């Protein structure tokens, strides 16, 4: 297994050429996506399954194996030189295991070993999904050209990853930048991770919807009570819906300000389903960030929407895998 302790440079013009591909997996609490990706970040083949997150670990792995099975059956598989995995975390890249907070059947699950049972002796690079997002946005998206960035995914959960001094910084276990489990409300609600007042517990999509419901908001007839529905209500002028997004924005701003203070990031890039709310989220986020990031070296951080959409996890897993191939050959 490729070590993730060192900084990884995302794939660039020096990435493997000659038609080589990597197989990428993006594993989250909602979906398991796979793709074959080339050195320019193009997705040449895809596979997708819903995550059976409430089921046991073997059932979840069976869904991963189905995705991999479709990829290995593709004629382009013969050009695959490595496998990249971006997984909901925490992950332990040094041991190849994952323990996603939102997939309770996986605790210390040997994901790299199980993936190798399907893919054979290819090098496998495991990162947290937030680190994968950072790799993607720095390689092909909104963080391109920035040497110091925090890239975040705000969806079913909240994850993040750092680019520092121009290189991806996954940390020793692949979890660096896991902003979703920074506590920003010391007496706040209990998070499934065991702490209180985590960014994820306040800003994730399900928690935005939960808070709006608790305060009296109701979706329209026939509409599911999702963060997307709350965002639509907020745009239509519903004060409860707007307040729920403002609370999420405040939590995100506090986490971003902490990151900017610690490592002097230049930009925070935010993707994921919740970011699709647009200015319903970004306007209050920028307002709160001005209040939290007050020191001169932190106050200039820019907040930008991610550019790669739902493909970011796959592109990032591929970028990290290409980096692993380069290190192995160097």
Automatic annotation (TrEMBL):
Any Pfam family: ROK
Family to which the UniProt record says this protein belongs: Belongs to the ROK (NagC/XylR) family.
Xref: PANTHER family: N-ACETYLMANNOSAMINE KINASE, ROK (REPRESSOR, ORF, KINASE) FAMILY
Name of this chain's protein: ROK family protein
Native organism: Streptantibioticus parmotrematis
């Amino acid at each position: 297994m490729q070590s993730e302790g060192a900084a990884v440079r995302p794939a660039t013009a020096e990435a493997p050429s000659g038609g080589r591909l990597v197989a990428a997996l993006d594993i989250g609490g909602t979906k398991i996506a796979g793709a074959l990706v080339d050195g320019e970040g193009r997705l040449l083949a895809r596979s997708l399954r819903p995550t059976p997150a409430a089921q046991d670990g073997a059932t979840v792995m069976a869904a991963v194996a189905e995705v991999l099975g479709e990829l290995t059956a593709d004629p382009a598989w013969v050009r695959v030189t490595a496998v990249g995995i971006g997984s909901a975390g925490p992950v332990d890249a040094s041991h190849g295991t994952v323990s996603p907070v939102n997939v309770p059947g996986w605790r210390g699950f040997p994901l790299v070993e199980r993936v190798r049972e399907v893919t054979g002796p290819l090098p496998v690079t495991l990162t947290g999904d937030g680190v994968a997002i950072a790799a993607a946005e720095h390689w092909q998206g909104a963080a391109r050209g920035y040497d110091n960035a925090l890239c975040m995914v705000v969806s079913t959960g909240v994850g993040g990853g750092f680019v520092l001094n121009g290189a991806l910084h996954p940390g020793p276990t692949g979890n660096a930048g896991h902003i979703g489990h920074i506590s920003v409300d010391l007496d706040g609600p209990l998070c499934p991770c065991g702490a209180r007042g985590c960014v994820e517990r306040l800003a994730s999509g399900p928690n935005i919807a939960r808070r709006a419901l608790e305060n009296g908001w109701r979706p329209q007839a026939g509409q599911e009570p999702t963060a997307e529905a709350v965002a639509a209500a907020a745009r239509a002028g519903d004060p409860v819906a707007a307040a729920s997004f403002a609370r999420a924005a405040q939590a995100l701003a506090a986490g971003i300000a902490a990151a900017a203070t610690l490592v002097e990031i230049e930009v925070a890039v935010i993707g994921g389903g919740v970011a699709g709310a647009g200015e319903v989220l970004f306007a209050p986020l920028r307002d709160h960030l001005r209040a939290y990031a007050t020191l001169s070296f932190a106050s200039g951080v820019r907040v930008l929407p991610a550019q790669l959409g739902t493909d970011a996890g796959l592109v990032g897993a591929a970028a990290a895998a290409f980096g692993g191939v380069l290190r192995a050959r160097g």
